[in-house]
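Entry 0007
Protein: Aldose 1-epimerase
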Amino acid sequence: MSITSHYYGRTQNGEEIYQYILENAAGMRVAVIEYGCVITNIWVKDNTGELRDVALGYSTLEDYELGGVFGAFIGRYANRIEKSRFTLDGKTYELEPNNGPNHLHGTFAKKVYKGSIVDGGLVLRAVSPDGEDGFPGNLELTVRYTLTDENALVLDYTATTDAPTIINLTNHSYFNLEGQSSGSMLEQTLCLNASTFTEGNAETCPTGRILPVAGTPMDFTRAKPIGRDIQAEYSQLQMCGGYDHNFILDKEPGMLALAAVARSEKTGITMETYTTQPGVQLYTSNSLQNDTRPGKTGGIYGRYQGFCLETQHYPCTPSHPEFPSVELRPGEEYHETTIYKFLTE
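Output (structure tokens):
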């Protein structure tokens, strides 16, 4: 794998941002910027040998600053924290509400990281100071991206803290295996290694009930078109306008295992997702049409034009102690790995 870098732009605060291009022997390329650790492009060869950019995104740094979270590194807590508060060691912390009354994702997607090339991978580092977004503890963050010659994009996250805190990190790439400007992805197929999911309330925060997918439109245990059941008369889908749910992966805690397989028959591109995380949030870009900033080819992205597989811990875990813990304490290291591997046939 080779890595090159070039000047990408300057933030509104005057910080210089560089873009790094990772390229493997097979010709696959991945572009990453220091702003938000954003994966701006993923070029994969289709079944004709043509390179297709399968990651939605913007064409300018300004759009990444002012727009959504395409391709970004998400935290300090990915997904929602109900009512924007949590209690840890008997103390209640108030967070910034940014999704109605709830806290969603945090601000890591808008943070500037320092990139460097280390041992054949791209390493990006930053510090989240004590009190940022209301979270306790100074958090030291390391994000590492590696591209193997087997077309596997490896995402490694590590973090340490100097005070007890909570943490939940993910990547928020929107994928379309026919190309980022190709329109709807609803005919592309998806299989999830998940026989249960966390039921959501009207604000998509978990109710605490874990429901089986069998016999419902939530069942992706066998590959099916993503859009086959998306309009079903099923309350969990109707309240979101599609899928925006945490699926519980059928695997051992902490084990790196296959979580999902997505495929486009049109391009022959398959994407396998592996992770050490216990869950994956399937989001079908139900509100993407509300983002009026232009995509990479100039047009406005539409609803259902991309799908997200956000590997993570469960939403609202501090309100549900029965969920896998998201606590991080001094002397411990948070470490999670996710791999997006691409195959073409």
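Curator remark: The chain has one domain: 2-344. The helical segments are 61-66, 235-238.
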